[in-house]
Amino acid sequence: MQSKSYLRFMKQLPFALILFRLALAPLLLYLANLGPAYYLFIVICCYLALISDVFDGIIARHYNVATPSLRLWDSNVDLIFWLCACWCIWIGFAAEIEQRWSIVIPLLLLEWIPDIIYWLRFRKFGCAHNYFSKLFGIFLLLNFTFLFGWNSSILLTTTIILGLISQIDRILIALILPARTCDIPSAYHAHLIKKGVPFKKYKLFHS
Fold first, then answer.
1. Coil, helix or strand for 113?
2. Overall pTM > 0.85
3. What does the angle CA 117 – CA 123 – CA 128 come to, to the nearest 5 degrees?
4. How far apart are CA 27 and CA 42, in angstroms?
5. pLDDT (tens digit, 9 = 90+) per residue, 92-135?
6. What is d(CA 134, CA 191) in angstroms, rounded to the nearest whole number?
């Protein structure tokens, strides 16, 4: 039998993990500015962020605290963390970014469009947590491992292209949905929702 204090702790833990990820964001920038000697710690922070992102969703769903508000916090903090992480790439590998401006700039511009569409349509920001965004996050982590761990940009272009695909999918979701809804796997699933066709969600893939 779980005690009330334990249950209270577990119900508060998902938000604490989100705040932990938020605290890691400025730490990344600090470490990047310290120079290459600290790059390994940037990689560690990124893995800690991913672990916290996975477990905040699992715990929240298990204890029935995965509210729309918590999901929105999760989405916004993810955005803040990975924007700071990407800024670290600019600090440490500016030349690699400059060689890819033609795809970097569209990625940065597209990042904001889904939320603008959500706000114009529903007066609320979105929290789709689509599969392409999760795949993009995995490649971001691998990209950081190669860049800051081994000074290799082998995955940088692929990661940016996946980011573009994920943002286009988010834009389509925002345009298709009849009402603001969280945890939409893809634009295709948004279309199913619009048509009233039921489908199964896999809990492991949603925060």
1. helix
2. no
3. 55
4. 8
5. 999 999 999 999 999 999 988 998 999 999 988 877 778 998 89
6. 20
Task: Give tens-digit pLDDT for 58-81.
Answer: 898 888 888 888 888 888 898 899
> In whole angstroms, what separates CA 7 from the centre of its chain?
27
Sequential DSSP letters for 126-195: -----HHHHHHHHHHHHHHIIIIIH---TTHHHHHHHHHHHHHHHHHHHHH-SS--S----HHHHHHHHH
Q: What's the count of helices (H) and strands (E) in the chain, helices before strands?
A: 10, 0
Collapse the DSSP code of 63 into the 3-class scheme (helix H, G, I; strand E, B; otherwise coil) and give the result: coil
Element (H, E) at 2: none
